[in-house]
Amino acid sequence: MILDDVLRTPAAIRDAERHTAHNYHPLPVVIATAEGSWVTDIDGRRYLDFLAGYSALNFGHRNPVLTAAAHAQLDRVTLTSRAFVHDQFAEFCSRLAALCGKDQVLPMNTGAEAVETAIKISRKWGYRVKGVPADQATIVVAAGNFHGRTTTIISFSDDPDAHDDFGPYTPGFRIVPYGDLAAMAEAIDETTVAVLIEPIQGEQGVVVPPDGYLPGVRALCTDQNVLFVADEIQSGLGRTGDTFACDHESVVPDVYILGKALGGGIVPVSAIAANSDVLGVIKPGQHGSTFGGNPLACAVAIEVVKLLESGTYQARAKENGAYLLAELRTLIGNGLLAVRGRGLWAGIDVDPELMTGREACERLAERGILAKDTHGSTLRLAPPLIIDKDDIDVAVAALRAILK
Ligand SMILES: Cc1ncc(COP(=O)(O)O)c(C=O)c1O
């Protein structure tokens, strides 16, 4: 009670909940400022950010290169709509296309919009190029997927929270077990226009598919004339130690879906990237967004792509990610049941006999570490890629302490 009188956090949380739909269950932390891998709450307590905006903050909070680009663009022009061309657009599109090794990009804002874009493009490609009969297109997806929250996307989610009570659902999707090539082959037929998967399932708890799965999907798609659509919204842009998670197995999908870190943690920026034989199916008036590809978004995203062109963030994620995963693995049998991951991205299963994932996150927050549970007793750890080994040590020590 005494603390409640002194601290501003409890009242701020009550205020935040008063006029808010409860579609989130945030940890009791009210953030006021942030820099790099650290945030500070309204009571002056500092926390290491091991969620990084679900990987939207790959380059750290307020990365100076990115905030400088945003400030400069705020003083020039922020929004034109795509009714006109602006002077940041060409550079953004050409740099992002080159990063992806593709001819073209189509910019949107949120991840879900980019997934919707990929679904529309795949269907249209299916009708116009592959020759699928009208309205018969099917897309094969994986069990345990997370691709966003729109009504079409949740139609093929097998998570009851995401899915139930939001019908009627969009037809045209077939769900197969993740990592199971035989089931995928079985599900593909002449109506199939695309396979849509996450190269690593983030929301599911950083589930890495078996070696050979992604090349197998690539081969199936090529054999069956089906588009391989990789949702790299969370796994891409350096997180796993390469530019894309698909790179680990030298796999090149037909369509990349990108979001989150593309906006540098400043503005929502998403996009799909593909070659013109695929993206060329879309014509004026058939798809778009008022804010998609706006000057502010492009100015920031140009700098994001430049950061990735240097390769230093990917290298850092690889080196420090290996360190993080090795340190976490020392806790298996000491409160953790399993550790999965690649690069600076880990899913850890806390022994449910000890505590729930939510309780683990609350205890970590008390020790100055921010992380988020996903599905029961699993935690997803995804610090900014700029994190150093000392800060990783701080987080692992806190985890060790709460698991005792
Ligand atoms: C793999 C994946 N796809 C799509 C999305 C949806 O992105 P957004 O929340 O920006 O709509 C997410 C978000 O977590 C994601 O992880």
Overall pLDDT score: 97
The tally of domains stands at 2
CATH homologous superfamily of the largest domain - what is it? Type I PLP-dependent aspartate aminotransferase-like (Major domain)
Element-level helix/strand string: HHEEEHHHEHEHHEHEHEEEHHHEEHEEEH
Outline the low-pLDDT stretches: none
Percent of sequence in beta strands: 15-25%
Radius of gyration: 21 Å
Summarize the biggest pleated sheet. 7 strands, mixed
Helical stretch tally: 15
Explain the layout of strands and helices.
Elements: H1 2-6, H2 9-18, E1 31-35, E2 38-41, E3 46-49, H3 52-55, H4 64-74, H5 89-100, E4 104-108, H6 111-130, E5 138-142, H7 151-155, H8 160-163, E6 173-176, H9 181-187, E7 192-197, H10 213-224, E8 227-231, E9 255-258, E10 270-274, H11 276-279, H12 295-310, H13 312-329, E11 336-341, E12 346-350, H14 357-366, E13 369-370, E14 372-373, E15 378-381, H15 389-403
Parallel strand pairs: 3-13, 5-6, 5-7, 7-8, 8-9
Antiparallel strand pairs: 1-2, 2-3, 4-10, 9-10, 11-12, 12-15, 14-15
Helix pairs in contact: 4-12, 5-12, 13-15
This protein binds pyridoxal-5'-phosphate (PLP).
The site of pyridoxal-5'-phosphate has 15 residues, from helix 6.
Cofactor: pyridoxal 5'-phosphate
InterPro entries: Aminotrans_3, Aminotrans_3_PPA_site, Class-III_PLP-dep_AT, Orn_aminotrans, PyrdxlP-dep_Trfase, PyrdxlP-dep_Trfase_major, PyrdxlP-dep_Trfase_small
Organism: Asanoa ishikariensis
